[in-house]
Amino acid sequence: MAAGEARRTQLLRGVLDLCLLAVIDEGPAYGYEMTKRLRARGLSIVGEGSIYPLLGRLEREGLVETYRSASNGGPPRKYYRVSAEGQRALAAGVSEWRAARDAVDVVLAPVEAEVSP
Amino acid sequence: MNEFVRECRREWKRLRVPDGVADEMASDLQADLEDAAAEGVAPEEVLGSAAPDPRSFAASWAAERGVVSQKPGRLRGRSPMLAAIAAALSIAAVAAGTAIVVTPTNASSLMPRSPSESLYLIRYVPHSNSLGLGFNPFADVTPVLANRGGTDSDTFAWILLAAGIGGLAVTGLYWLRIRPRYRLRF
Hints:
heterodimer; A: 2 strands; B: mainly alpha; 6 helices; 3 strands
């Protein structure tokens, strides 16, 4: 794995749960629908961890609730929606992310980064 | 059923995930992969880095959901210490047995320790008319005066062997007690 990809993976590993909660917060969704929403926002999980174990953890921690419902005429699917606890966790997590991001931006600001084509 | 999902089902069965839960997970995964394929989206977009390894993916998903049966893992945390004790006792038993077998005399020794300083060792002395057996079990029993050095090693060896066998027995009983229904799964 190239150094850039490894760093991206490390960064995403710390915030993918927040990203999932954020896209679920748009409206109840099943697994594939979440990956579509992430991709629409410019975040592809190719090469990253799968969202299914992460959804399992979010469910186990009570941050999302689930229910089964028919989807577009197909078989019943498992839908996820953010719980009240999940809302609080999302808000706190986003706040932490922004604080960390801003601090890192200050440190890296003097660096002129050029990405070779 | 998609091959990836089929492999996941095998892994869940191995992990003793309840059938209802495994059915639900397989159904959802199958439906997601079919939707992605219908839209021309590669499985990697749905599965991420897990795409080439269905067994790890299935195990990870089941573990995060908390639906893996605890029974196969009951030994975790306990087995290293128990295994170390059993290994030590096995080595002791083997060492003692080896020491007994390779002692200079080719006969067994009885070592009733006498209160006196001298140690009387009763040995079965190989008789010239050995009947082709290497020794004659009906030969005269000849008391032999032996020094303390030789018999101490025999004593130690027998004690070590007894301790090793006794310890292995206790370890085995303990193992059976904590794992009453252990069975191999492939």
